[in-house]
Amino acid sequence: MSSASDELRPRGAEERLVNPEVAKAGDESERGQDGGRLAHAEGASRPLSAEPAARREREPQPRGAKIRGDRPIDQAEAAERFLAAPLHQKAHDERLWDLRKKRDAAAHGIPEWEELRELASQIKAHTLSNLDTYLEQFEAAAKANGVHVHWAADGAEHNRIVHAIMRDHGARTLIKSKSMLTEECGFRHYMAGVGIEIIETDLGERIQQLDAEEPSHIVVPAVHKTRLDVAEVFARTLGTDPDNDDVHYLAESQRETTRPHILSADAGMTGCNFAVAETGSVVTCTNEGNADLSGNVPKLQIHSIGIEKLIPRIEYLGVFIRLLSRSALGSPITQYTSHFRGPRAGTEMHMVLVDNGRSARLGMEEFWTSLKCIRCAACMNTCPVYRRSGGLSYGATYAGPIGLIIDPTYNKRKYSTLPFSSTMNGSCTNVCPVKINIHEQIFAWRKVLAEEHYIPALKQGMMKAAGAVLARPAAYRAAIGAADSALKVLPRFAVYNPLNTWGKKREMPEAPRETFHAWYKRERLKKTGQDA
Amino acid sequence: MSAREAILATLRANRPAGAHPLPEVPLFTPLVGPDLVAEFGERLKRMGGRVADADGGDPFGPVRERLQGARVVASAVPEYAGNRDLASVMQPGDLADVDVAIVRAVFGIAETGSVLFTERQLVVNAVAYLAQHLVVLLDPADILPNVQAAYLRPEFGQSAYAVLHTGPSATADIEGVLIHGAQGVRSLTVLLVPRP
Ligand code: SF4
């Protein structure tokens, strides 16, 4: 697809992996045994840190969307603020683009990639359409393994169940690994209210917890922060040296301050990447080792599972594990792929199966396949709007393309504007490892929201006119160029509701001079130093 | 109605239209060549791990320096004595001071450079994360070609805990700067040592 080829254009290749300023002598992380550069886990393939000059002119971190109850999120407003912080915006964009490039290289390294995507999509479709029986099978297997199984209709019930388990054990502290499901449930907030201390043990998630912010990305939660921001957060909350923004120092500080919590916690919790019906196993795919510590150190272990995570049999992990990390990070596998099936001797293991809107989503003809999502974030990394506006601008648990199609199922009014935060280039659909037709669902949501009057009448009128071209990315781009209605600088174009730029009532006073794609191409070429 | 009954009822009522049969998953040709040992080592190194042949007499030669510098060595293998008895550990947290842990892998995977452990190899699961460094014994004859082959093995359905390690604990959550030893081991070294 032409949209993808534009996006695929390589950026400038720098040779250093880590900025010499932050590399510690004798550190083995940067280079492998053979001396080659390492870029596994979430590692960037080249240095992406803000220019040293940026240290002197400190740019405050832009914050996320303003939440006003149920009122529609103004993503464009928050995105504007992100764009007004060029150091953050650039670092964010480049970092995610790097992940996207790593993903492409990994995918191209497997001849059967497209076949794997199709298989994964079919296995998920099958499981979802028989989810009742697979859940029953999972429950029976887990119980036979000595696991306590709980069912939660929504986030509140999940929180109450976990609280009750904790209370039964007199447990006051809980260490946990990253879980988008618990973010959905507002778990930390609830537990704080009942006096239970929650410690996030994933580095990115811990940064966000300490800064009282939501994760901005489902794989790299603090990707919108520079190391200067992290240094500020850690100095304020962990007592680190505020002037030391060495990434090694910061990471080590988190390790050292988290370890005592891990050793003393009463309970440990993980999320779930895959739940295997046949064996009752919970599978987590992580890099830091914190999920395995959460599951293997405390006496009480709890796994929170979204019901859509089911797969029928272990052997299908041979499909999904091969897709997940390659799509997410460009690595063939995560550092740890952990299969929790039963309690350790003398300990208790609980699994909480959480619905929280999933069973209802299954009944939405146009949107049920969004339940296939394995949360790899490839669609976010490839999305030009997401990369330039930051995950927090969406004001929802899930940002980026996947967020646009599942957030409205949680709250149609509040997230009514999100499906308009897309250029409809289709790149998300192209990279999705389970072949969700993301951009088509985005468009379908626009129609639903228009029909149900969640968007203003003016935009509704434009919907009709724009509908035909919006549905076809190539035609859409051609129309944008011809109408001369794109904005001079991509970000304003990208983050503004395309329907605004479409209509008579322009948001931007100056006459647009070039389209996003033309702009993008030019910027790319400038960076790579190539001739057009 | 309990949450369980309500969820199952809604799922039944909302079953998507159309047939969605489970596909037949073909056995894909491994991405790796016939020299599984070389392929395994190559992939493991790219994932930040280290690999060494047993050079003649002393299988622990490549990690001798690390072992000599260690105060506490917890060994789960008969080939090395260590000075912390895993079998008598009362609670996992007691292993927080382990410098080096030594364990044997059930098998390796050439496609990824991964090694598998279950609770049987680890004795105390947490030792593989609380230790500062992990040394893994792997029989070169135990290397499988790919992830797909690994998931046909019985260990996943039989063990309370089964884990694939691919290199050491790692993070790059800050600016993409790769760091080994996020919460778990700072290094993982595989020694190719046949089973006794
Ligand atoms: S929608 Fe697809 S690409 Fe996006 S996070 Fe989910 S699985 Fe990954």
Q: Please, could you describe this protein's structure?
A:
The complex is a heterodimer of chains A (532) and B (196). Chain A is of the alpha/beta class and 532 residues long. Chain A has a domain at 6-112 and 388-523. Chain A contains 25 helices and 10 strands. In chain A, the strands form 2 sheets. In chain A, strands 1-10-7-4-2-3 form a 6-stranded parallel sheet, with helices on both faces. A 4-stranded mixed sheet of chain A has the order 8-5-6-9, sandwiched between helices. In chain A, a hairpin with a 4-residue loop joins β5 and β6 (281-286). In chain A, α5 (113-129) packs across α14 (317-328). Chain A is globular and about 55 Å long. Mean pLDDT of chain A is 83; it is low at 1-23, 464-473, 475-517 and 527-532. Chain B is α/β, with parallel strands linked by helices and 196 residues long. Chain B has one domain: Rossmann fold. Chain B has helices at residues 3-13, 36-46, 64-68, 119-122, 127-130, 147-150, 155-158, and strands at residues 50-53, 73-75, 100-104, 108-109, 114-118, 133-138, 143-144, 161-165, 170-171, 179-180, 187-192. In chain B, strands 1-11-6-3-2 form a 5-stranded parallel sheet. In chain B, strands 7-4-5-8 form a 4-stranded mixed sheet. In chain B, a hairpin with a 4-residue loop joins β4 and β5 (114-118). The longest helix of chain B has 11 residues, at 3-13. Chain B is globular, with a radius of gyration of 20 Å. The model of chain B has no long low-confidence stretch (mean pLDDT 95). The chains are: A alpha/beta (532), B alpha/beta (196). The interface between A and B is large, with 116 and 83 residues. The structure holds iron/sulfur cluster. Residues 373-379, 402, 431-434, 436, 438 of chain A line the site of iron/sulfur cluster (SF4).
